[in-house]
Amino acid sequence: MTRDPDIQKIFEIADDSLQGVLGYNLYIMALQKTANPSLIMKYLPNSVDDTKQPAIPLTFSWIRYYRKEELLEAFKEPVFEFFQSRITLLAMVSVFEVALGNFIATLNEKGHTQLMSPSDPAYKKLKWAYASSINCDIGDKKAIVRLSLTYSIIDNARRLRNLIVHNQGIFDESYKTQAIEFEDSKIEFHNLYEVYENNRNDKIPVILNGGDVIRFSQAHIEVLHILHNYLQKEYFGFPRPYNYSRENKPIKWDKVLWGEAKVASTRAQIYYKLS
Q1: Pairing outcome for strands 63-65 and 55-57
Q2: Residue 64 resides in a domain
Q3: Which end of the chain is less congested by CB atoms within 10 angstroms, N or C?
Q4: Is residue 269 assigned to a domain?
């Protein structure tokens, strides 16, 4: 008995991608700590017309003039960490949601009907994933026990993502009304939502930091492993949980960032395009 290769591929792509998102975030945060403002100024976009004013090309037709000093000021700490954490969350939630959709599509195609479509809303796919995962009986036992809590963390990330994409990262009532309550776990709320509830007329922003990024990443990766283990055993009869050591799968950053592409070739192409 072997794992289904298509289900495993979906899992490994998502697993690698989530690790890539986290690794990139850690790298960028480290760069920020050591950045030289004068060198940043040097490499920001310069003028593109006779005015000699620095300009940013917004479209193929339009540019907008800007002051480099103001851009540097806008991204001073701690704002850089807050904004970078938002961007990381968007990527993380997107990777996870796509994986759930691909799992559903593949199972349906193979005759294991889920009564779900990959195009269903994210909250429905998350409910499907939870209903599946709680039946898992292989792998990390502690992780299985805390599934309700872990899914509450993931749902919090989903709702924060919606605020960032749909409401410029400002809290509103949808953050609460869209919440999913999982069995044996309270709904997780960002601590600033209480500030919003007490000050409905104020614009309270979603503020995330590096600690939030780590926690959201842990939740998404942990659930991804449990769900994959369950699907392989339930539908394809493979009883052994996925294990990095047993699979001989150390972190290979080139593969995490570029997948199956030939890295030497990719680097050569990038160098050619930049030169």
Answers
A1: antiparallel
A2: no
A3: C
A4: no
